[in-house]
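Supplementary Note 3. Input sequence used for the single-chain structure prediction.
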Amino acid sequence: MDEALQILKYTAGFAIIALASHRISLVFQRFQLPMITGYLITGILAGPFVLHLLQAEGVPKLNYLNEVSLGFIAFAAGSELYLKDIRSRFRSIAWNSFGQLAITFVLGATALLLLADYVPFIKAMNMSSRFALAMLAGTIFVASSPASAIAIINEMRAKGPFVQTALGVTVVKDVLVIILFSIVFAVSQTLVHNTGFDSTFALSLITELALSFLLGYLLGKLLGLVLRWGFPISLKAILVLAIGYGIYVLKHLIQHWSESHFPIEIHLEPMLICIIAGFWVTNFSKTRPIFHEVIEDTSPYVYIAFFTFTGASISLDILFEVWGVALILFAVRLISMIFAGYAGGTLGRDPKEFRSINWMPYVTQAGVGLGLAILVAEDFPGWGNKFSTIIIGVIVLNQIVGPPLFKWAIQRVKEDHMRKPTPTFDGIRDVIIFGLSAQSLSLARQIQQHNWQVKLITHKNNLAEYDTENIDVRYEKILTPEILKNLDTEQAEAIVCLMDDDFNFNICEMAYEHLGTKDLIVVMHDPANYKRFRDLGVVVVHQSTAMVNLLDHMVRSPQATQLLLGMEEDQDSMEIEVLDPTLHGVLLRDLRLPSDIILLSMHRGEQFIIPHGYTRLRLHDHITIVGSVESLDKVALLLLK
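The predicted structure, written as discrete structure tokens, is reproduced below.
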């Protein structure tokens, strides 16, 4: 009972650290660094060696977070191996995976053998033990981090052949690493303990791998069954997390049971099991769309917990002692990956611009590498802890350096699809409306009455059917980012899309990536498209629910609704951006505002503020106000000049 309370206490404390980690990571994002770098740094700072927010004795008690996260991350990694998508890149994925596996393993193991005489605990070992240690290190050096790769790809909304190959290689390589480690681990135990190779050794190795593949298949079946149940998506996400953690619990149970009943231990590979399960659900189950929705919705929270905890788990004191060796091995791994990337890219016939940066996506290490290093420490008590410390030191360097390198590589090949910064307000309020209809023309005329400049764009040549007098209507059969820019849409404050959902989404995506338009508004027809619009920050209006919500507010708050809708005579609402630098830092109570003006809300970046007299203005704050039309014009003049 006391143990459970302790775990609960540390979990609650870590939850607060994780919340802070998310906010701090946004600061790193401003400096073009991946958010996972922010999670790691926050974890290191909050851990037992800097700020002591998480005590050293609390880290082992939270190890279940690692297992929950790794199970889910393995599901996500398996789900990225969708055969229909990677079929066109299969040759490249195969050769790059082979190059990374063979060259990194050989060079990494050779480097450690050459450094053996300079590391005291390795120098004291016999040659067979040195070979065992070198092979273990070489295997761990091959491992990459699917979690980091997926997190960066999602953050940058990256897509394209380079990203597709990088993710495919990362996942395939980790499957191969886990299989290779199972073999090398068994061989190393034989070399270190000098027990020799026999039929029992081979049989146990084959049994472990076969059992892992079988359990992966059965787990995929179980996931497919769970995802078919009519539960809310949040409950399905909890069940998926629980199932992933359950595989680690099963691993420990089978290991202890086999130790008691057989002359050998059975070591399952939980990550291999979960990767196979995710692969099966994605390729051979009808629940693939639901599975991907669970992965997409849950992964941000898992990454926050996993990388923050990874940072907090790093033993900085031991790391400082072996820093020199770790730095050399880090450099050796980078050099071997550069050779492997170029060789794999050449054999895989990748474009020339890919070959020189082919190694960058695979620098990052995390879950798999850490897990394998910890396993070595547990099973080789004489030197395993010192070995794992050196390896963890290399992994820490890879985890800090790797994500920015991968992010830079994605930007280099122009496969990132992040939001373009919003242009500075030019003093003219513009709105672009897509779609020519009676509704869009009525909207255009109403907005014009409020001194906005309106441009209406249509891809159908039906202008003769409508009265377009005094409306700037443009006909464009095909819309591309370049055509949009030529239509002077870059300075528009808002874009309104009134066409079919697919066309609307294409417009919003182009505006998101190439224009940086502040407000994107869409009238949606199919509710199934809601999520993809919301992922772009689009304000979605569904016609049926919009009318119901409007009538609901008219019943419950008739005065406020009529005021906001401009139904009251000579009353209106307006959102104004603070552009006058002399008002920066001024208290709202010190502004000379007309007496009938009411300040409803304020947005500062992503922060929503209910203003009061002691709220200080900041440049580029967005303030929503209500009042008479004449007073609104006066306030606009005050804040915009």
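The mean pLDDT is 83. The chain has 26 helices and ten strands.
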